[in-house]
Amino acid sequence: MRQFVVIGHDAPTTPDFPLDDLPGAAGRLDVLCRCVSAALFRSHGIRDDVAVFLVLGDEVTVRIDAGDLRYMNPDERNVASLLQKALDAKDQAIGHREAESTPGIHVSKRGFEAVLDAVSGTVVELHEDGAPLADVEPPADPTFVLSDHRDFTDEEAALLADASDQRVRVGPEVLHADHTVTVAHNYLDTDGFEVY
Amino acid sequence: MRQFVVIGHDAPTTPDFPLDDLPGAAGRLDVLCRCVSAALFRSHGIRDDVAVFLVLGDEVTVRIDAGDLRYMNPDERNVASLLQKALDAKDQAIGHREAESTPGIHVSKRGFEAVLDAVSGTVVELHEDGAPLADVEPPADPTFVLSDHRDFTDEEAALLADASDQRVRVGPEVLHADHTVTVAHNYLDTDGFEVY
Q1: What ipTM was predicted for this assembly?
Q2: A interface mutation test: which of B48, B178, B188 has the most A CBs within 10 A?
Q3: Which terminus of chain A has a lower count of CB atoms within 10 Å, N or C?
């Protein structure tokens, strides 16, 4: 399974944001929506065996499980509307337990540390100071951890340093988080591409 | 220079489309907007030396030149609003000559064939039946040609076969056009990545 954890530092934790202003009033939610699309969609279908965790303001986490997902289109507005529904269901989530807002979309009152505890597989930090992706053996069940348009805070960086097994970068250019997700997928897709 | 030509088969050719329904009423303009973002943006800046040609309904082309670009954010709605301005300026473009709607964005009444004649460098068709990207020597000045959510029509495919020097695919998975743009950039970025 491939998992992606994306931290949204300025992202909303309540559903009262306008779908018409995702970059502004919704705290760069456009970036997170594109990360979701990049993680889940391939042409004419959904990738199997992928999960995305969006950590919003270090207090709410939306987990999207590709296996059960319904009703999602790859455009930012549609993804944002489903995230809005998830935030609207937040009060049904008690403690760290999740509530399902629409099929495949789960909300919980968890911050970054609790999510790091919950993910499985090899935790890979995607960071501009990491080793080139091409020099790293692809892990079987990677969990990639990324930040939105902001850097990891010192506290996040410390938590991640404890949890992560690898720190990699996708290339010499520093990319947007969603583009990084796409490159990470392609890197895993093309491992052994010759045999296809 | 890196150039990207993206064909939008159902995309609008007039500015009277709603920004609230890019996938539906605006004919999957969301895909083209994400292609523009993927082609132009890196983290905290614009890529130098990139141009994007959006061929809309085989009759209008919007050319976006990264070198002169102003006022663009990477979210779909913002890109779409600038495309709307370009379509609004369409009648200022006479014959195949361009009119500039906002800095760096140019509109002309050109279809796919005229755009293929206008682009420079090595024309590379991105297609699921092409050779794996990793097996192809990166061209110095590539022009990547992609289709939106639809396949190339027979006529487009014939024109492209005449014009293109290479046909490549980005991996075993068939990706969305915008994700393909991201992978193509990464492929060129990381050529010689070891020396960074």
Answers
A1: 0.94
A2: B178
A3: C
